[in-house]
Amino acid sequence: MTADPTTAPHFPPGFLWGTATAAYQIEGAVREDGRTPSIWDTFSHTPGKVDGGDTGDIAVDHYHRRSQDVALMKELGLGAYRFSVAWPRVQPTGRGPAVQRGLDFYRRLVDELLDAGITPMATLYHWDLPQELEAAGGWPERETAHRFAEFAQLVGEALGDRVNLWATLNEPWCSAFLGYGSGVHAPGRTDPVAALRAAHHLNLAHGLGTQALRGVLPSRAEIAVSLNAAVVRPLTDSDADADARRRIDALATRVFSDPMLHGKYPADLLADTASVTDWSFVHAADLEVIRQPLDALGINYYTPSVVSAAAGGQAVREDGHNASEHSPWIGVDDVNFHRAPGDPTAMGWPVDPTGLYDLLMRFSREAPGLPLLVTENGAAYEDVPDADGVVHDPERIAYLHAHLDATRQAITDGADVRGYFLWSFMDNFEWAYGYAKRFGIVRVDYDTQTRTPKSSAHWYSRVARTNRLPEPETEATAAGPAGDTATGAVTEAAEAV
What we know:
Blueprint: E1 16-20, H1 23-26, H2 39-44, H3 62-75, E2 80-84, H4 87-90, H5 100-115, E3 119-125, H6 131-135, H7 142-159, E4 165-170, H8 172-182, H9 192-216, E5 222-227, E6 232-234, H10 239-262, H11 267-272, H12 286-290, E7 297-300, E8 305-309, E9 335-338, H13 354-366, E10 372-376, H14 394-412, E11 417-423, E12 442-444, E13 451-453, H15 455-466, H16 475-478, H17 490-496
Parallel strand pairs: 1-2, 1-11, 2-3, 3-4, 4-5, 5-7, 6-8, 7-10, 10-11
Antiparallel strand pairs: 8-9, 12-13
Helix pairs in contact: 3-5, 3-17, 7-9, 8-9, 9-10, 13-14, 14-15
């Protein structure tokens, strides 16, 4: 991961151009080769939890279509691929020796990526906790962090000779606060104390997992963590709204970044949540364990948040319900959320690339010398094939161009950004939204599993191959159909899938 700043519109030499996915969202084969249920298997099979009653049982069948998917990545000229390792596929009970059949899938995936000239980045935890560990208490229990370290060691031993870039956790905020606070993600619990305990034990898992990886990986390996750090902006310049911003920032971002980067929990966070817990689950040596030296920090970004102090001290969500009813914002019942400016994506998330710039500059200042990676960024839109089966998605191209330009500007202004992983390589199971939202640059027909690169895939292919953003007047050419000389073989690869 070596890159030197350069001038617009180019990106630094050696910049990683990648895409990202997660195991439960794409693999399917949930009962094959020894795999047991994860919390997302259980959650998605619980009536009313996922839109349309969808599950990841088949997803996009990547477990059986791995080789074709890698071939498509190669044809698109992608330089890197961030995937996650399914914990219950490797260690079905969350304890004990690895199932070699499960590890073999990832060994073959990595080998094929390397043969294709694609840098693999392995994420160890993207939300698929083995159900047996949840039955024993899940992330609110300290033991789960130790079990994660054991899992990290097993995967590191199996793949460490070929994978040089690792991430311990993906978006621990979602695991803790959506999984145990609001209950809209697996395992679907709504216990504010459990959510804060889970946040700490995820931090501890990151530290223990990093130590375990360091013990088995070669010295060249680089370890990161991917945080969905929030961009929180006050509605007005009032002191009350500024304090609302501070409180949400503490619970959304600093609850993870402060322990991981600085070895402490924010004093204001502890004060804000004192009525919920005394944080006695934090043991004396924990913060030293959590603060492990990192080789990079992964940043996931989609949209900013706008907040204000609630009139009368009681927040109301957009749906009219009391914000304290199963809220992920533990101890923060008096903050209102407002829609940020910008045209919305299919998720209803306003488009604002300045938020990505702000995050990159924030962590460039906060952790000087620590390289940054954009490990997730992308947008869902209503992608519909035309009469010829071509998927034109100009909104996504505009979204990507704007956010890549923000990334390039951050690099120009001194941020050491080493790579960009677009979310997502292909349409997939979008968690509680099921298959209703499409983030991929490759369209998947869920009935036939046919893969079709969208216009954005061809556009991104050109960006990756040239290491620069196209000029606006050339965007249509860069996003052209498979007849484009840079991407002409893509159609053939897609048809083979």
